[in-house]
């Protein structure tokens, strides 16, 4: 595809997945790492360099015959990179300056703050003394985090200072390292996002995900993050602005904290593919690995390449960590391989406790189904997938009525939805008595994931039509029969809408048909509902045929007696 | 994942993609082929065998330390495989017996016929004489095909005998080969399908695709094949039955002819991954390559692993063939890389005219968008993707009416659908005058891809309700006003349906609202329609606000004068 040769510092799993993407594009890669590392295993080149990515001579050797260097780990020797760049003019992405900023977590935070990006408040230690930490403690309060500025990952390099009494042991634990203190951040969720920066400085973000850590190591990633659209929007903006502040190009992993207030802070940034982006291999148009290769070789990044392949899917990524008992983690992989639409990626590494051995991507059209699969794969819980693929957590249909006096009529429809397993909500919204509530309801329904609204009303029945006037969703109207006029007043109020705003009207008091119509409408988005409807209609037919049979068998007089 | 070591005879692109899948599962592979072939490039093993897959000694060497052998090409030495199997007891999938049957195309056909599978009629030549061929010509008629029984692929080994006068040149062209004559088969389309057979003999089929050949080499593959559900069903059954007839396990490519009569014949079978299945890498839950690895190592093949990742996507696979000018085919690949949701796979082979250098998978939610992308990639035509992602070729909404006298009312709705860009069909279906036609219409609508039906009727308006009784799709009823009763007769006939069968009723004569409701309903499956509806409602609001402004400005008296 491209004649450029890419040299990669580091040959772990991230390098391996970069190599896989490059292989597909006939882009030549060379790896600098020791031995037959994960990445080298899938590239039969004889040009790999056996050595350390912290060693100038090895980096020099790698750079020979390469057009661009990149890293799969930020703990490289930046000065060596700069030396080699000066000597040869080779392109290096991420640029050494960015790697230097990022590999020192305190410099990274300072840089972000200077660019107006919200981060957790931090103060660096000048001499790693108890007095310094105590002074910070008086400012920040306890608990607070003592952190190593460099070489910290997967929780290594962090120490929680619970009270003043812990300060000495914390300093002892992290002694001889450059340190800083971080204010305690009582976040509710950890979010992350992969952001690609092109050589021209354009940034493209993948979906916002939620990461869940166990013993400080990434355990699972939920895609998209199950948080509100507002939070998603804020997180995207924050992460994109953060990545705009770094020169150079390539992919970046951005980890964030979501606070109880809804505010979001950047936790830290990785200038390379990231564990929280492994799901992109199966769930997105272009994987984080191919995106990185494209960005650093200046190949095109076309429209929507970071998008989910299908906006209605959910994904969970589960890390495969080495078990305490060698190779026992493969049992989990075997369960994954039995699971519909779960894909296993192993990295060719030998089993060691807590080592990242591989990952599993789980895809389904609902988060609850993904979780079911996760429970089977991770905990060996029985897999009982619902045949309905929509999220059962969120209502798809909203039943509203003008008054609780409509409930006896409307509840019959609710029971039908229950029978079909359609997730729904039911409440009172009155056009005439709660007009503001009605407006809010209509305006927000679509964003809440509602697909169809059933509105029941009697008399001068305005509710269905007014709601239809303020949403683009299909609205089904149920005329409820009042004490006069036999319901014809409601029927005409609902059905005789002016051109422009349709209400799907059903028979007077017939909320059953409203619910059945809602199921048919959901079928446009998901055939499962149509199949269930076909089954329902078959059952109905059989029931009538049974009655006919009985009527013919016992005769109409006996039948009437029953 | 699995401790079995898989030896692969052949190291071309099919072997390469098998190795990629095995790498992801930590399954060790060893390749038998000459040099640093495509497959060896992405496996840094030192255990590969440099030699020919037709050579006993090399196969013996490959089998050493392997648990199972497989092939990426059927032109291997079957006797050698059998010898090695006898010597070592090694598992070989596909089983040698199957490879032998398949590598001789005439034996393959005989085998299929013996198992009741429809194939093109063929007769083998005993002595390759003109007289033999002439006798067959008198039976089959001209033109007919002279074919080599063995070592024929990509059209090499075929010769069309147009008339008696061609016989000698045909025999000369294919001289010294075992030959057979095939009756001329005037097919309308070529179909293909990948079928996986498990060790237990269960068969699983991927989607039926259409293959298009150019100069006898596979050019493009269309997924799913744009043919009727009946043809899809027949083709699946035929292919599955064919593969059931072969012992052993693994993946098979089945090529078929669709005849003008709608009948389907098997053309030929490949006992390995196949060019027509490359789209599975991006479009299906599990790729043909991983499926083969799983089948031959007896790993699980879970529910739906052969399905499209999303039932509403379409895919086109385009082969990248070496250009007459070396490397010029990369220009096409560059355009692919610029194209949203197109993925390039190159095989690490050096450019030679007509050589299979790679392939490109194009995905979109409509066939027409896929074709647009194909035209850009292949022919460098300007890319102008429609914003509507549903296939524009197939109607999504069906407008029916009981009589042409309803057309003036119903055509207003049709114009609305046109304005929104909704593909629709419009016809007359009368409940009372064409009851059988109505039944056929209702029964077939869903399978034809219709998502929503609009039915208009007047008087004792039965059409909407009767259609709703025979389909699971949502049906919108438009009461058409007749000469008496002001349309209330139609309204009540349509809206007052019994419990169980809903009709979404709109106002009398208001086909506008029926069409707008249909657009809202389509929005459940595709948000684009909801966005268009929001735009429409905004425009409507602005129009009224404009009128209000004018009314306030010029006063009601002047306004009335206009």
UniProtKB/TrEMBL annotation, chains A, B:
This is Phosphoribosylaminoimidazole carboxylase. The lineage of its organism: Eukaryota, Fungi, Dikarya, Ascomycota, Saccharomycotina.
